[in-house]
Structure formats: C-alpha cells, structure tokens
TrEMBL record, chain A:
Protein name per the record: Metal-sulfur cluster biosynthetic enzyme
Stored InterPro entries: FSCA_dom_sf, MIP18-like
Domain MIP18 family-like residues, every copy: 13-85
SUPFAM superfamilies per UniProt: Fe-S cluster assembly (FSCA) domain-like (SSF117916)
Source organism, top-level taxon: Bacteria
UniProtKB/TrEMBL annotation, chain B:
The keyword Hydrolase belongs to this UniProt entry's keyword annotation: yes
Amidohydrolase-related domain location: 14-322
PANTHER family, A to Z: BLR3681 PROTEIN
Name of the protein in its database record: Amidohydrolase
GO MF entries: hydrolase activity
Pfam families found in the cross-reference section: Amidohydro_2
Organism domain of life: Bacteria
Claim: GTP-binding is one of the keywords in the record: no
Species the sequence originates in: Antarctobacter heliothermus
Keywords attached to this entry: Hydrolase
C-alpha cells in the first residue's frame, strides 16, 4: 500500500500525461472530453486506466487508437512498468481490451479484425481535419488582431511564435497547431511559412478567404460532433461518486465535481 | 397543421419518425438495451427540460401516444414511419413494418410506412422486397448500414448484393431510399461513418432519391460535397433539428452550410420521433433565423418563411408524390381522434 499522498501525486501525473491522447475524430484530449473514468496506481509501478466513450456504439477503430494511445503515454512515464487499459461499456470493448493489454503491436492486433488492413489512411484523413481546424483558429485570431491576408499568408513560423494572442481558443490551439506543423514536416525552422496547406502548398493572399471557407466546414463538422459527444458523455454517466471525505483533487481534474460558479448558477 | 403566430397554415410532413418497442421485455441481449439507452441519451441530452420523458415512456409508445404526440399535440399533417428491424437485438424487432402498418390503419391518410431490407440476406432480401411492395405497397425504404447480421457488423450501399436490391427497388417503383449512417464496425480499417458509398449508389441509381438522414452527421462536410455533386441526394434533418435548442448558433452554421451547398429544395424536416417530439421542434424552427454573421459568410443565405415551408413539408411531399392542396382538404375532413382517457 502506497502512502496516500504519493499515490495521489502519481495518479495526477498519469492524468496529466493523458492530456496528450486525443479523440482522433474530435481532435480534443480525452481528458477534456471526460472519457477517462478512473486511474488507479496499484503499487508504485502499476497503473490501471479505465475509460469509456459517449455511447456503446462509438467507432471501434478510434476506440482502439485511444486505448493504445493511453497505454503508450502511461508507459512513457519513467516509473511505470505495467499499464492496464480498460474500455468499459462498449460494443467492441472486450476485443479492444484484450488487444491493448496483450503487449503486442497495435498494427498486429488491429490487423486481425480487418484482414490485415491498416488504419493509416483514416488516421491521415482525421489528422488533416485536425490540422485544418487548428489552422482556422489561428488564422481567424490573426485576422482579429488586424492582420491583412498578405501578412498572414507570408508569415513565418518564427513570426507566429512571437504573436501575443488574447483569445482563449487561440492561446490553446496555437501551440497545438505548431506542434502538428512540425510533426508533419510542413515547417522545419522558423524561416518557413507558418500557414501552408495540408499538402504543403503556400496559400495566395487572394485565395485566403476561399481557403478559410473550406476550413470552416471542417470545423463546423468537428464542433458539432464534439458538442454531441460531450453532451452524450455527460448524460450517459451522470453519477457523481465522491468519497466520504469529499472530493479530492483528482475528482476536480476528472470533471466529476462541477466548478463552484456552475453550482451557483444552477441554483 | 402548424399555425404560425400570424395565422398562416403550414403543411408539415415529418420525414423521419419511428413506432418502436425498445422495452426490456423485447430486448434480446445487452445490445438491445444499449441501443435504446443510447437513443435515450440523445433525448435527455438535446431536449429542453420541459420536454423530457421518463425512461419507461420512452421505451415503447402506444398507438394513442404516437397519434397524440404527432397530430394532436404535435403539428404534423403526415409522418413517415421508418422501419428499423434490428433483429439481432430485439426479439420481435425494434421498429417493425407489420406493427407500424397495424397502427397506421386507424389513420392511413396520415402515414407513409417505409420498409426496410438487409442486402446481406441475398435472395431472401429480394423476395422480401417483393413481399413489402405487394402487401404494403411501400414507396420508400430505410437503410441502416450499421445493422448487425450474424458475423457481419455493417455493410455499404455499394456492395454488390445491395446493388441487386436497389435494381429491384427501381423496377418496382420504390423510389425513396432513406439512408442512416451509423457506425459500421467491420471493416475496422475504414472510417465507420463514411458517406462515400452514398456517392457511388446515387451515381449508379439516378432514378432513386437518396435521403441521407442526420444530413450525413457526423460527416457533414463530406456529405455536403457529395450532395452538391449528385442531383438525387437529399439531406434529412433528423438529429440536427434539436440543436436549435441546445446550440442555436451551431444549428445556424449547419443550416447555412446546407443551404449554401445543396439548396432549399433538398432539405427535409424530420423530428426523429420518439427521440424528440415535433411540437417544440417546429415551433422553434418557425421562429428561427440564421445569425447575421454566419449567414454573411455563406452568401447571405437565410431561412425565409418560404424556405421553411419547403423544408417542413413541401420538399418531402414532392418526393412522395403528395398533392398538398388535395391532402389538406382530405385531412380537414378527418381530424385525428384518440380514445378518451
């Protein structure tokens, strides 16, 4: 049995590392979406993560990706030697759990269920959508700061890094946008253009508004799904389980405890 | 009949309703329980608080319930009942053609009951299409591509077996194919909600009308692209409608996209009863305007009264060959009655 304080600290460390796992369809961290249900550090080196999705019918292939993503992030913590991931209440849950905890490679496990095919193409499609959505937020933020199309399309990564945004959404998305830009090799150093298309092409100043219209339809779709998923997750699991000593920090992080102002507003 | 605050009478043809039995007695397994529970989560998540139902009321509706909710308390003139069998999940099926037709007998002038088939049944599916046409003279079908069937956990509209069925539909004059994209589980290597197959099927069957429910959600962007290319693809608003309450700006963005891409003649109202009831949806829809800034980004599209009338009934009436004026006088002579309680 771990000392309670240490255990709580380790659990928080796990919660924080799971911010890096996103729902591929929504491009939102699974922790923000309220998908992570429970984290347990059983002894100093073993972690169990329980998660659940908004409905029993959510896409199983994305459930696989999230389960493996959780495992990968948890195993990357230096003190962890064993991670168990459990997807609960899902139509494909048993198979996902068996696969993710088998210790085998993701592609091997996944291939069993689709005649050896890979999910790469779907993953790329959704990564492109995530890129578009993040880019739209940043570009609209720059427009709001008064930059004209010519200034935006010619902006370099180095210049973008210097911009000071005010809006909450721009502040959140700009680092995520830059991260994806670098990961995908769409920009390598600070002299490269900050706003190429997903195909790596520059955008012409004249074509910016048309480009933004396309980004907008991607975003509308993703936000619609996000709204639906958040709502369904909340309705599906309404219960608030707080221990006899009241909520702990973990309860607040997990969204099990509404912020004070919300409680007041509900009256 | 919906009466506007100005006293104008608007014809309402609800394009997407169900007469289901999701009660525990009818559930064959955990999947049946999870299916109705998922619908109930949609209901509780997106309804205004005063429209919430208890679970038992939601699980199964009586004949009186559906008449009251659609035609007495509700503004519908007519409703299309969609068949969703889910025979792997429910002992007697979830929303059955027979049970719906039995119910519709009391007021046949108000209902269009659509059939359904599963192309994976092969020859039997073809025989069943003949049976539905001969017995119930169906003019449309509801396709649920995520339905399980033994080992299969989903299918696509452009599967060869499906094409055989659509050829027969075309031949028999079953013109309206309502498509519901749910999560197609297998093959896992594909996007479970992909609407690409609609593109193929609509191109290859130009005589059929393809009404994509939930306007392709959660793939609205892909759907708009396809529906713009294909003249015979329509958007059903079921599930998009209730956002008018919970997220009115998003509803405006969705409507702006649909009006911009596919136009006012190809959008169909659907309440998705009994997930939601048409009364509050139609009232809110009639009051609704797309916010100025959203409209401006899409060439100033707006929901005018004329466009709302098309969406609420006139567009669907065209697809189902209903003469709206004749129907109005027929209905005026036969008000809906339900048994005294």
């Amino acid at each position: 049995m771990l000392v309670a304080n240490l255990q709580a600290e380790l659990e928080i460390e796990v919660w924080e590392c799971l911010d890096a796992v996103t729902d591929p369809e929504l491009d939102e961290p699974i922790t923000d979406m309220g998908f992570v249900e429970r984290i347990e550090v059983t002894d100093a080196r073993k972690v169990r993560v329980d998660f659940r999705l908004p409905t029993y019918w959510c896409s199983p292939n994305f459930a696989f990706l999230m389960a493996f993503g959780i495992r990968q992030e948890v195993m990357a913590l230096p003190w962890v030697v064993e991670a168990n991931v459990h997807l609960n209440d899902h139509c494909f849950g048993d198979k996902v759990n068996e696969g993710v905890n088998s210790g085998r490679e993701y592609h091997d496990v996944f291939a069993e269920y689709c005649d050896g095919a890979r999910l790469d193409e779907v993953v790329q499609t959704f990564l492109a959508k995530a890129f578009d959505r993040r880019q739209e937020t940043v570009v609209l933020g720059l427009q709001a700061l008064g930059l004209c199309p010519a200034e935006i399309v010619s902006m370099t990564l180095g210049q973008l890094r210097m911009v000071r945004f005010d809006g909450e959404e721009e502040l959140r998305q700009t680092p995520r946008y830059i991260e994806l830009l670098l990961d995908q090799g769409l920009a390598k150093d600070s002299a490269d253009l900050a706003f190429p298309t997903w195909d790596g092409q520059p955008i012409q100043a004249m074509a910016l508004s048309e480009h933004l219209a396309r980004l907008r339809s991607t975003r509308i779709n993703m936000e619609f799904n996000g709204a639906l998923c958040r709502g369904l997750a909340k309705t599906r699991y309404k219960e608030v389980e707080i221990g006899p000593d009241g909520p702990t920090l973990v309860d607040f992080i997990a969204g099990r405890v509404p912020p004070r102002e919300d409680v007041g507003a509900r009256g | 009949m919906f009466k506007t605050p100005q006293g104008k009478e608007v014809f309402v043809l609800d394009g997407h309703t169900h007469f289901w039995d999701g009660s525990p007695e009818n559930q064959a397994n955990v999947h049946g329980k999870q299916f109705i529970d998922c619908f109930y989560a949609y209901h509780t998540n997106l309804s205004p608080p005063e429209e919430l139902w208890e679970k038992a009321k939601f699980d199964k509706q009586s004949e009186d319930d559906i008449y009251r909710d659609l035609f007495v308390d509700g503004p519908n003139d007519m409703a299309i009942i969609q068949t969703t069998v889910l025979k792997d999940f429910y002992k007697n099926g979830f929303g059955c053609l027979e049970r719906s037709n039995e119910m519709a007998k009391r007021h046949p002038e108000r209902f269009i009951v659509n059939g359904s088939f599963d192309p994976r049944d092969g020859e039997q599916a073809l025989e069943y299409i003949h049976y539905m046409k001969e017995t119930y003279d169906i003019s449309g079908v509801k396709m649920y591509t995520a339905e399980w069937n033994g080992d299969s956990k989903g299918w696509a509209l452009n599967d060869p077996a499906a094409y055989k069925c659509f050829e027969l539909c075309d031949k028999l004059g079953i013109k309206n194919i309502h498509v519901h994209k749910g999560p197609t589980i297998i093959p896992l290597s594909k996007d479970a909600f992909s609407v690409d197959d609609v593109d193929y099927a609509a191109t290859d069957f130009q005589n059929l009308n393809w009404i994509v429910e939930h306007c392709g959600l959660p793939r609205l962007d892909d759907f708009c692209w396809i529906a713009t290319q294909e003249t015979n693809v329509y958007a059903g608003l079921a599930v998009a409608m209730p956002f008018i309450h919970s997220r009115p700006r998003y509803f405006g963005e969705v409507m702006a996209e649909l009006l911009w891409w596919i136009g006012e003649d190809k959008i169909l109202f659907g309440s998705d009863y009994a997930i939601w009831t048409p009364k509050w949806l139609v009232e809110k829809f009639w009051d609704y305007q797309i916010p100025e800034d959203i409209s401006a980004e899409r060439g100033g599209v707006q929901l005018t009264d004329e466009i709302k009338e098309k969406i609420l009934g006139l567009n669907a009436a065209k697809l189902y060959n209903i003469d709206v004026e004749a129907k109005k006088s027929q209905l005026a002579g036969s008000p809906v009655q339900i048994a005294a309680e």
